[in-house]
Prior knowledge:
Blueprint: E1 8-13, H1 18-29, E2 33-38, H2 45-57, E3 62-66, H3 72-90, E4 93-99, H4 120-143, E5 152-157, H5 169-189, E6 195-201, H6 207-210, H7 215-225, H8 234-244, E7 256-259
Parallel strand pairs: 1-2, 1-4, 2-3, 4-5, 5-6, 6-7
The protein binds nicotinamide-adenine-dinucleotide.
Nicotinamide-adenine-dinucleotide binds near residues 17, 70 and 103.
Amino acid sequence: MTRKSSNQWALILGVSSGFGAAAARELARHGYHILGIHLDRQATMPAVNKLIEDIEGHGQKAVFYNMNAADEHKRHAALDNFVDAYHREGRAEIKVLMHSLAFGTLRPLVGRNEGEMIKKAQLEMTIDVMANSLIYWIQDTVRRGLLGRGARIFAMTSDGANLNLPFYGAVSAAKAALESYIRQLAIELGPRGITCNALLAGVTDTPALSKIPGAKNMLYAAVAKNPFNRATTPEDVATAIIALLQDGTEFINGNTIGVDGGESKISYVGQKTPYQYADLNLLTESSWDPTDVS
Length: 294
Ligand SMILES: NC(=O)c1ccc[n+]([C@@H]2O[C@H](COP(=O)([O-])OP(=O)(O)OC[C@H]3O[C@@H](n4cnc5c(N)ncnc54)[C@H](O)[C@@H]3O)[C@@H](O)[C@H]2O)c1
């Protein structure tokens, strides 16, 4: 990979935790400055300050905004400040734009009674933050001339875009929209030399996961079915992003790329290998002998 020149930046939406934080550390290690957007209260600020320290420890700049990424005025203000401070003189370029925002309402779409039913504002907010905000940040970085040829856009998705989970209806719709936006953006931004891909992470132990009802069971199930016998980590995704920044990878465009060890492809029926249940004689009708490995 080309060593980054001193004006190359990664804009990470959701920088302070989970996938965003791991990507920020790895990108800084590879020579990118980090423009980070996050939403944190006082209790989690020590971790944010530690992340800034780590980025600066790699000799890179860390410009962070603690704000709602879906707030239009704050988005304009953050980008205008960034342009004033770094773009005019040094012609800063955003080479990586990562969407990794976890901010949604986890409740039934209909539920058992009125009280459980998701509200219009909650549904719209979830889709706005977790999907539509991708478009607005891209539009506003393009408008300011920050996103040029060679830039790479990554949006974090999950297999919840295609599979059902209790309480996940709004987020699931947001993920489906996000993947659809990525395909459409790939067509529109390809001619500008910008690629767009969704990264489908497996179940990963992060603060966002812990808010999903049944999160522990999701982790157990993920490890049980994952061909690598472990859950995905934020660092797995960070490593994949670095790989997808290699020169010559621009034809990888418009995809949903699994970074989950194959977890989302497994239809789990409780076994790790085809041979595990051979002794149950479940396959007596079959001409295939599961114990024959020759
Ligand atoms: N954890 C998993 O198992 C998993 C699996 C696949 C995909 N994902 C997706 O990855 C993305 C990141 O999730 P994570 O697990 O790293 O979560 P996380 O909770 O560790 O990080 C979320 C980040 O988003 C920021 N954020 C949340 N709402 C915001 C807002 N309105 N404005 C600005 N910043 C905001 C937080 O400050 C934080 O930096 C999400 O889109 C999530 O759906 C998660």
